[in-house]
Every structure is written in structure tokens, then in C-alpha cells.
Design a protein that fits this description.
The chain has one domain: Molybdopterin biosynthesis MoaE subunit (Aldehyde Oxidoreductase, domain 3), CATH 3.90.1170. It is 29% helix and 37% strand. The chain is built from 3 helices and 9 strands. Strands 3, 4, 6, 8 and 9 form a 5-stranded antiparallel sheet that branches. Strands 1-5-7-2 form a 4-stranded mixed sheet, sandwiched between helices. A hairpin with a 2-residue loop joins strand 3 and strand 4 (48-57).
């Protein structure tokens, strides 16, 4: 399987990521391997305590980029199934923010495609992340150094 026959599913939105539902989308009788990456909100960044993350996205462009990435992955790794999901909004510690899952005929392709998928999503999709610090301030990743931005600004 692979190519035009590959089943893909992409989503960007505020809904919690339900891993069991996404794993069902990866099931394929031709797949001998499945690989999944899940990004989870942690309680610190660079040694500074956080209370969560905030994500914003330009959703139509993010989904278009997911489609481009997906086409590349299917072509390069001959995938059976591909699922890519990213949350937006405020997320608490422990919540899943991103899910990339693949199924492929063999294990090496599944591992490689999953790694390439999350790397490309993080590099290319217009999805932006802010650390929400314990003191109530926040800092958008990629923002210049300086004082933290307050939650209202």
C-alpha cells in the first residue's frame, strides 16, 4: 500500500487529543509497523516553572502544510496510514499538544516517517507556541529577548 491509496487524516483545533481514536485511524491490515510521537505539555522550560502552553495557528495554512508534509511522507516512506493533529488554545501540564502517527508495511519506514513528520510539522506549519510562566506572564517562542509579555499583552 502507499501512494494514492494511503489513508490520511489531519486536524488543527482546540479539542483534546483522544489517542485511542487516533490509533484506530492507523489500523491497516497491510501495516506491520506503527509509530507515534506525542508532544505533551511539561512543567518547566529552560529551568523555569511553567503552568502550561498556549498555541495559535493560522488553521487553513497549517492544514495546507499538513497536506504537503503528508504527501511527502507517503511518497518517501510508502505509508499505509498517516494521522497528524495539533491543538490550539491554552493547554495544561500533561495535556497532549501534538500527535503524529504512521503505519507502514515495515518498522524502519514507520520510525523514519514518524520522526520526519513531527520534525516537518514543527519546522513548517504556522503554529505558534507561548510558555505560560508560573508568575502569570508568557513568552512566545521566537520572540526577542527582553521582559516577558504579560497575559493581557
Amino acid at each position: 500500500m502507499g501512494g494514492a491509496e494511503t489513508a490520511t487524516w489531519y486536524h488543527v483545533g482546540p479539542e483534546p487529543i483522544v489517542v485511542a481514536d487516533l490509533m484506530e485511524r492507523l489500523a491497516d491490515p497491510a501495516a506491520g509497523g506503527q509509530a507515534v510521537f506525542m508532544g505533551v505539555v511539561r512543567d518547566e522550560f529552560m529551568g523555569r516553572p511553567t503552568r502550561g502552553l498556549e498555541y495559535e495557528a493560522y488553521t487553513p495554512l497549517a492544514l495546507a502544510e499538513f497536506n504537503r508534509i503528508g504527501s511527502e511522507l507517503v511518497r518517501e516512506f510508502r505509508l499505509c496510514r498517516l494521522v497528524m493533529v495539533h491543538r490550539v488554545g491554552r493547554l495544561a501540564i500533561g495535556e497532549t499538544s501534538v500527535f503524529v502517527g504512521v503505519s507502514a508495511p515495515h518498522r524502519p519506514a514507520a520510525f523514519a516517517a514518524c520522526r520526519a513528520g513531527i520534525d516537518r510539522v514543527k519546522d513548517r506549519a504556522p503554529i505558534f507556541k507561548a510558555e505560560l510562566w508560573d508568575d502569570g506572564s508568557r513568552r512566545w517562542h521566537g520572540a526577542p529577548d527582553g521582559p516577558p509579555v504579560s497575559p493581557d499583552g
